[in-house]
Design goal:
With 196 residues, this protein is an alpha/beta fold. The protein is built from 9 helices and 5 strands. 60% of the residues lie in helices and 12% in strands. The structure holds adenosine monophosphate (AMP).
């Protein structure tokens, strides 16, 4: 299987670039944010819990989101691979992802980090909020989400750099150019893995 993590701050373009990667590599998309929003819309028990965290811009507890992720992986037997979008967001989640994949004889091929300056992220998220009606795309919640990204999620770069899986990409400019940079990064990682 070919498993990718698309990594970056809220508004960095993870969803948009996931769509590009899905059509190119035929992968199954797992967006934990989307699954949580579906649960909220359906009024499930998980959705009721998740709603309280999401609307404040806080992260859902690791054990809940990790269990949900493992279930989603198991719901797609025979897939070519996964693109993980919005997971992991903490070190325990990253450790859990490695463990879950290892238990299934799999691993993470590359972690692609989209780098976008905070002022652009805020601009993009405010614009998205006008269209999407998402409860968390308002200025107060955006600031909270960015703060949590910098304190809890961004340390994952070092986690993945430490074992050579992290590739940083400039996430600004034309969508197609960003997609090209991602493919180049994946190819670089392929080459590096062959040399090992
Ligand atoms: P996203 O659609 O990825 O921006 O996620 C929207 C919200 O869902 C986040 O701000 C969190 O509240 C929650 N969420 C999504 N993925 C995770 C995760 N891996 N861990 C904890 N909370 C998450």
């Amino acid at each position: 299987m070919f498993n990718l993590v698309i990594f970056g701050a809220p508004g960095s373009g993870k969803g948009t670039q996931s769509d590009k990667l899905i059509s190119r590599y035929g992968l199954t998309h797992i967006s934990t944010g989307e699954i949580l929003r579906e649960n909220i819309a359906k009024g499930t028990e998980l959705g009721k819990i998740a709603d309280k965290y999401i609307s404040k811009g806080h992260l859902i507890p690791d054990d809940l989101v990790t269990e949900m992720l493992a279930d989603e992986i198991d719901a797609h037997p025979g897939t070519k691979g996964f693109i993980f979008d919005g997971f992991p967001r903490t070190i325990p989640q990253a450790e859990a992802l490695d463990r879950i994949l290892e238990e299934r004889g799999e691993s993470v091929h590359s972690v692609i980090g989209l780098e976008v300056p905070d002022d652009q992220l805020i601009e993009r998220l405010l614009a998205r909020g006008k269209e999407s009606g998402r409860s968390d795309d308002n200025l107060e919640t955006i600031n909270k989400r960015l703060q949590i990204y910098h304190s809890s999620t961004s340390p994952l770069k070092d986690f993945y750099l430490g074992n050579g899986r992290y590739e940083s990409i400039e996430g600004t400019g034309e969508i197609d150019h960003i997609a090209d940079r991602i493919v180049e990064a994946i190819n670089r990682r392929d080459e590096a893995m062959k040399k090992k």
